[in-house]
Amino acid sequence: MTTEQPTGQPTEQPTEQPTGPTSPTVTVVSGGVGAARFLSGLRDAIDPTQITAVVNTGDDTVLHGLSISPDLDTITYTLAGVTDPVRGWGLVDETWTAMGALERYEAVRPAGSAAATRWFNLGDQDLATHFYRTARLAEGASLTEVTEEIQAAWGLPIRLLPMSDDRRTTIVTTADHGDVSFQDYFVRLRHDVVTTAVRFQGPAALTQAARSALVDADIVVIAPSNPLVSIAPIRSLDGVDDLLGARRDSVVAVSPIVGGEALKGPAARMLTELGHEASVVGVARLYASIATALVIDPVDAHLADAIVAQGMECIVTPSIMSSPEIARELAATTLNAVHN
Ligand code: FO1
Q: With 80 as the cut, is the pLDDT of residue 264 above it?
């Protein structure tokens, strides 16, 4: 069966899907690309209306006066089936006319101005999302409200919630460039610099909607996202670690590290530079206080005992989401870890 998505691109829908009362309610603590792929698999494994994602907004930035929420948008586009499959962010078949046209203004930009910035690529279609979000925020809507509207515009059955309605920003301290914003580190510096610390700046209030989602869900999954810059900003909000710790028996994490490498991005390098172990055991140490089980890939099966020694159960299953079927199987196995 195929269904038309808002852009007119057909996406395959699962043929058999548990519905209604058989599906548990699941909240996924989410970063960007890895979480988006996991959520796609979960959407195919259970009734999607039972799923909520609490999404990192520490990566959010303002460029050209536009409010940009990369992790929310990556999840939205991925679930809508329109994300660029190679980049993992932005839209497939995107054009870059507006970015190119900015070149004219670079010549006249005064020193110190961030106008006409071109190191962060905003595609022509993607710009519409940022225009909409920015206009609605300027009208006084909260990020939670705007996210619900964007979710509805793309016809997504999964509920997306930003972690906070306030600007809580990830700051990366680098050896050579001092303190920089997350997107400066990730995109402008191509995460090819030594990091010495990460901190989160701004109000630490989890939204009430996100709090309820984390408290009330039958199962909480920590997505295979960077523990230090995607999951940690959410954990840095007031009360999050306490509420997850209090329901630890129904929290399961999926390792973003496979064979000592990150599935995507700089997680392995950051773990090492910031004093952790770039392995599934290092991930287990970071999550042992808030999750009862860690899902790892078969290439790391020899480390299962070391994970158990950290006080976590260990589930071994293919976790490199190279196909929708693997993502779906990973999601189903992850839920089974805590759902009997
Ligand atoms: N990532 C890049 O590596 N280069 C870019 O120019 C870039 C632009 C961009 C625009 C919109 C958006 O939603 C995401 C974008 N990303 C880009 C991805 C983003 O920096 C990262 O995926 C996350 O912030 C890390 O989770």
A: yes
Ligand 1 near 58 CB (within 6 A): no
Q: Is the pLDDT score of 8 beyond 60? A: no
pTM of the model: 0.93
Residue 197, token pair as written in the block? 């610390």
pLDDT mean over 144-160: 98
Q: What is the DSSP letter of 202?
A: S
Q: What atom in ligand 1 is closest to the CA of residue 121?
A: 6
Model confidence at 267: pLDDT above 80: yes
Domains of the chain with bracketed CATH: 20-336 (3.40.50.10680)
List all residues 6 or more positions away from 244 whose beta carbon is below 8 Å from its beta carbon.
Answer: 214, 220, 235, 251, 290, 291
SS3 content of the chain, % helix, strand, coil (to 5): 40, 20, 40
Q: Could you tell me the distance, in angstroms and rounded to a whole number, from the CA of residue 71 to the centre of ligand 1?
A: 8
Conformation bin of residue 155: beta by default, left when phi > 0, alpha when psi is -120 to 50: left
Mean pLDDT of the chain: 93
Closest among 326, 295, 285 to 28, alpha carbons compared: 295
User: Strand, helix or coil at 57?
Assistant: coil
Higher-pLDDT residue of 17 and 154 is 154
How many CB atoms neighbour CB 321 within 10 A?
Answer: 23
Ligand 1 pocket, 122 CB below 6 A? Answer: yes
Confidence band for 299, pLDDT divided at 50, 70 and 90: very high
The crossing angle, in degrees rounded to 10, of helices 70-79 and 143-153 is 20
CA 130/CA 279 separation, integer angstroms: 36
Q: For tokens 């209306």, what's the residue?
A: 49
How far apart are the C-alpha atoms of 75 and 69, rounded to whole Å? Answer: 10
